[in-house]
Amino acid sequence: MTQHSNVLFRFAAPQAFYGLAGRLWPWMAALATALGVWGLWMGMFVAPADFQQGQAYRIIYVHVPASWMSMIIYLAMAFWALLGLTFNTRLSGMMNRALAPTGAMFAFLSLWTGALWGKPMWGTWWVWDARLTSELILFFLYLGFMGLTASIDDPRRADKAGGLLALVGAINVPVIYFSVRWWNTLHQGASVSVTQGSSMAQTMLWAMLLMALSFWLYAIAIALYRIRTLILEREKHTLWVEAELRPEGGAR
Amino acid sequence: MIWNSASEFWAMGGYGLYVWGSFGVTALLMGGEVILAARRHQHTRESLRMQATTTDSDQDMAKDWQP
Known about the structure:
The complex is a heterodimer.
Chain A: H1 2-12, H2 14-46, H3 60-87, H4 90-122, H5 130-151, H6 155-169, H7 172-182, E1 192-193, E2 197-198, H8 202-234, H9 239-245
Antiparallel strand pairs in A: 1-2
Chain B: H1 6-11, H2 16-54, H3 56-64
């Protein structure tokens, strides 16, 4: 136990985490790329057409992973916010700022690919049903988080305010997930469910899961990369950053 | 292989606009995010290094006081 928490505390220091993130992100990025290529190959060249939707269903390979990530990243932000607000950890706020742009991007992609899928299948780009509306709210929550943290000069106060928004907004995530069950929506029910398994063909399911894993690793890679920039900016007055920036010093 | 020709692949059974519109924008945004993040990191490193060289004497003194 003590050894375990020692490791955690060591990497809770920005300087140590800077090094750790720098060593980790290239592996995450490489894995994300490999799984993405594999998933795209499976999805676009191996998986057959859908018997109802023809080739249009292939949008699922970006739509579902992007939607999942938009929710998972927000939950991750709520987790870091809780940690930051209770233990006053410095890294938590930076972690959330590193995650938010990627979460916003995935929320936008969820809406965008959803619109492009809705048009040929439902005959409309958009409908104000529970699933679509709650996902739109998630997108605005990300934008709100970024606007709020950017508008407060004192970084620690900005982190606190942003953390509060991340925590309160997390209520919306289960609403999105269960919306298709709680309300009568135009959006279809879950294709993959923890309790009922999957309603999809095996190759389709594997391709989708590979893409989801690829997006997940991408999100981790880009967040680890971005947090290093944030750490440098915030710790710029320290000696270790000065040493890190010297031409001969450290890895980039 | 499920496709008979390249044009059949790009047509996506008549849904090409929707399928490629989805994959294209996804690739564009993810690629763009990577480029922006890399550029910002380089920019931060350079501007902080500039600041460090202009305040060099302070830093040297600070170093003398290190244990």
